[in-house]
From TrEMBL:
Pfam families: HEAT_MROH2B_C. This is MROH5 protein. Residues 15-152 form the Maestro/Maestro-like HEAT-repeats domain. One of its GO terms (cellular component) is cytoplasm. Gene3D superfamilies: Leucine-rich Repeat Variant. Signal peptide: none annotated. It comes from the Eukaryota.
Length: 152
């Protein structure tokens, strides 16, 4: 049983390493396929925990112009970062909060909603003593959030 667990961990790590290289591909369809695979892998909490190593690469995809790709990326990030057993590091929270702010103004409603929800969840999941570091970013987000609330 223990050997099977080790083999499963190695297999998941190998798959994630392979997907990570294709996540940075110039081919938009390849990135979409990788994100679909990651969404499937995220269904398992064990695999979602192992995917933390992809956080930086996923945050880079948030800059893409393709709304569908960004929406899929937000879904993967939500599942990976909001895994109950793992606190969100303040450095990741700050980077993600800054990356999410421009998405509040995207044309795609799905991207706007996913980014706003992920932003709120990240703020909540950061350790209490670390929240003071997010204060500036939260203040910058209030006006755009107010406008979107007023639009709805």
């Amino acid at each position: 049983q223990f050997v099977n667990c080790l083999e499963a961990e190695k297999l998941v790590d190998t798959i994630l390493q392979l997907l990570s290289t294709h996540l940075q591909s110039d081919c938009k369809e390849m990135r979409r396929l990788v994100l679909r695979g990651l969404l499937t892998l995220c269904k398992s909490p064990f695999k979602a925990k192992r995917m933390h190593s992809l956080t930086e690469s996923l945050m880079e995809l948030l800059k893409d112009a393709d709304g569908e790709l960004v929406g899929m990326t937000l879904s993967v990030l939500s599942k990976v970062l909001l895994e109950k057993d793992i606190p969100i590091a303040i450095t990741i929270a700050l980077q993600l909060a800054e990356a999410l702010l421009p998405l509040f103004d995207k044309d795609t409603t799905q991207v706007r909603l996913l980014s706003i929800h992920l932003f709120g969840d990240v703020i909540v999941c950061v350790e209490k003593e670390e929240k003071k570091h997010l204060k500036t970013c939260v203040h910058q987000s209030l006006l755009p959030l107010f406008y979107h609330l007023h639009d709805e």
